[in-house]
Amino acid sequence: METYSKSVCELKHEFVKVYKGNSHTTEILPNLPNETLKIESQQLSLLHKFLDTNPIYSNHISEKISMKDYTIFEGDLNNYWIDSIKHDTSYAPFYPTWMLSAWGLALTAQTFGFEQIIDIGSGDGRIAYCGKVLGLDSISIEIDENLVSMQENLSKKTGVDFNPVCSDATIYDFKKIPSKKSIFVIGGVPEIGEVLAESVIQNALESSHISNSSFVLTGSHSHREFSRDRTHFGWGTSIRKFELTVVSTISLPTYWTMDQEFETPYVFTKKG
To answer: Global pTM?
Structure first.
């Protein structure tokens, strides 16, 4: 996955150089199957379909980047961002990962042999969607009803059922989740997502029917609290608290790092 991560990060930097628009939110996807990005033709078609039918994006344009053809999707996140923070127990506003980053997370989960991906604080459900496209069972848990409604519409329009669930993940009954080798992808950087992450980890570890649970934590290079443990990209304290082991860390672009030189580190952990 290091090769994939490097390729996507390099692509982001090339995209930033060539993009001349002023759209609030941007995405890019290759127009042809890409061996480096490990996307086959049918899979790529479904990724395009997700963004084509996603109401966040209102325009798309073709562009050559590094001599290859890409589609740039332009949109506006404001309405969905405002909705996502209206709940008292919403621990992080909705900021989408890049679609190619969501694909990378699902691809890593598949590479590690997981059968099921549970996307916590899922926004528009793109990580769960990518997991389903790759053949994993998926569950998408999101607290905001408008985002879940969007997910349901995307599921119908794309024909990909990634199981959207409208619930507060900190109190969701994980006994409803099928007993399979599962990985939880938890949104929210440590400064604002610690309560969500620790509640989900505790909940999952107490659900003994979910075998070999693992957790992906969204790391951060910047820490607003000077006293915060900076190890494992801000997750050191939580990792020690639950006696987790770090399996891998991959860096991928996100909405909030588009104008930065660095990317978002995703920390893959497991119990023990």
So the answer is: 0.91
